[in-house]
Write a structure and sequence with these properties.
Structural class: alpha/beta
Number of helices: 14
Bound molecules: zinc ion
Helix content: 25-40%
Strand order of the largest sheet: 6-5-4-3-2-1-22
Largest sheet: 7 strands, mixed
Radius of gyration: 22 Å
Number of strands: 22
Distance between the termini: 13 Å
Length: 474
């Protein structure tokens, strides 16, 4: 078995690992890389292998940094199955369609701006921007999905089986164990953690224990950090909402359209029900949210006790008075002239694309307003610059002064922290030979390497992009 790291190597996005077993090639995830526009374009457009060379994709979960380049893979000749959980397969339909639509719209917006500037005599050499993939490319991807039940071992190719466990990170998220039984030599068991979640997150269940393996590819997003306790999340949210409401300001909330948005809606529902925040207008400005809510309802079997309780009382966890889902762009634009206080939850979560950019452009220069950051922000993204409180940020290529309050809701992180990652490793660590850390920035990885070495006395490394390893026992 041979392993090559093509994405999320010493960084957090673009998850993609290449496995070779019995002469066949597989991908663990096929995610979109996010970062500086030019570099991201280059990295995403140019896959380091022909699509047709891949036998199957094993997809850990639906987040775009894990699934977002599947349409490109298919356009590049991939003809095999995409194995994943049923909820992930269902979520990928609206998510990849939305991702394609965002890319088409952004290209249109940038090209129109170039034309306007050219008319004014500037920017003659700006090339035309093409979407990375289109809605049509996304639609060609869906027939490749093969949803498989969790916990059972399924054949993934010659001499290779694939088995999944609930990762507790988002609806349908999985950790996977690959077992390679070569014709000669011992069996090799490899676990890919995907993104490891946490106990206590709204809606979803806690991560399941994974049985022992020989090699482990593990995420390390928060490998050097300890999170604030999740029990405080409702208090923090209520404080920020009330403070902004008091100023008559608007709350601009970038959030992953799938997962984080539904968790925020459920928390706001509980706060309003308990009269801890005023019943002011809340908008979920995402054409994706309506479709995704349907997918959540279809997969109630994955809900935790809290979300199940809403259902049992005949209440909709994802809907309440004063909450409006905005599907059309024309509805989104009406917010431009609406006086505060109000709140909008919109995508993308790292402020790299989508309607959130328009809300930020219109609102971040007003000190009455708050930008509430609810998730991880990768290096070089607009979301990261806002979270770090830069005094000026570029939106659609134009500088804007950041005068709004910036608040962080770290508690809701969908990623395990250092302690939680070590606890998650415990059941699979017996006999473990080596840990490959992915999906983390170097400082977080170094801290986690020290912690793993100290606790388990197992070799842990953070591979570079393109680095390959022979996984052999004996
Ligand atoms: Zn994720």
């Amino acid at each position: 078995m041979k392993l090559t790291f093509w994405g999320a190597a010493r960084t957090v996005t673009g998850s993609m690992h290449h496995v070779e077993a019995s002469g066949k090639h597989y991908l663990l995830d096929c995610g979109q890389y996010q970062g500086r526009r030019k570099e991201a374009e280059e990295r995403n457009r140019n896959l380091p292998f022909p699509g047709a060379s891949i036998e199957a994709v094993l997809l850990s979960h639906a987040h775009i940094d894990h699934s977002g380049n599947l349409p490109l893979l298919v356009r590049n000749g991939f003809a095999g199955p995409i194995y994943t959980s049923a909820a992930t397969a269902d979520l990928c339909v609206p998510m990849l369609t939305d991702s394609a639509m965002i890319q088409e719209k952004d290209a249109l917006y940038l090209n129109r701006r170039t034309l306007r500037r050219r008319a004014l005599g500037a920017n003659h050499d700006t090339p035309e921007v093409k979407p990375m993939y289109t809605v049509e490319d996304a639609q060609h991807t869906f027939p490749h999905f093969r949803p498989l039940a969790m916990h059972q071992a399924h054949p993934a190719g010659p001499d290779l089986t694939y088995q999944t466990f609930d990762a507790g990170h988002m609806l349908g998220s999985t950790c996977m164990v690959l077992e390679h039984t070569p014709r000669s030599g011992p069996k090799i068991r490899l676990c890919f953690s995907g993104d490891v979640g946490r106990a206590g997150l709204p809606i979803i269940r806690k991560p399941e224990a994974v049985p022992p393996v020989d090699f482990l590819i593990m995420e390390s997003t928060y490998g050097g950090r300890l999170h604030k306790h999740i029990e405080h999340v409702a208090d923090t949210l209520a404080t920020v909402v009330n403070r902004t409401h008091h100023r008559g300001g608007k709350l601009i909330v970038p959030a992953f359209a799938v997962g984080r948005t539904q968790q925020l809606v459920l928390l706001l529902h509980e706060l309003i029900r308990a009269s801890r925040i005023p019943p002011f207008p809340i908008f979920v400005d995402s054409p994706l949210a309506v479709n995704v809510t349907e997918v959540f309802r279809k997969h109630k079997e994955l809900f935790d006790a809290e979300a199940t309780a809403f259902e049992e009382h005949g209440e909709d966890p994802f809907g309440f008075h004063r909450l409006r889902y905005l599907r059309e762009a024309s509805e989104s634009k009406t917010l431009n002239d609406l006086r505060g206080p109000w709140m909008v939850i919109s995508a993308s979560g790292m402020c790299e694309a989508g309607r959130i950019l328009h809300h930020l452009k219109n609102n971040i220069e007003d000190p009455r307003n708050t930008v509430l950051i609810t998730g991880y922000q990768a290096e070089n993204t607009l979301g990261r610059k806002i979270a770090e409180g830069h005094s000026e940020v570029n939106i659609f290529g134009e500088p804007h002064r950041l005068r709004a309050e910036v608040a962080l809701l770290d508690e809701l992180s969908g990623h395990a922290d250092q302690q939680e990652l070590l606890a998650w490793m415990e059941p699979l660590a017996k006999g473990l030979r080596r840990v490959f850390l992915v999906h983390g920035e170097p400082a977080q990885q170094e801290a986690l390497i020290s912690a793993i070495t100290a606790r388990f006395r197992i070799e842990a490394i953070a591979p570079e992009r393109g680095q390959a390893f022979d996984l052999a026992i004996g």
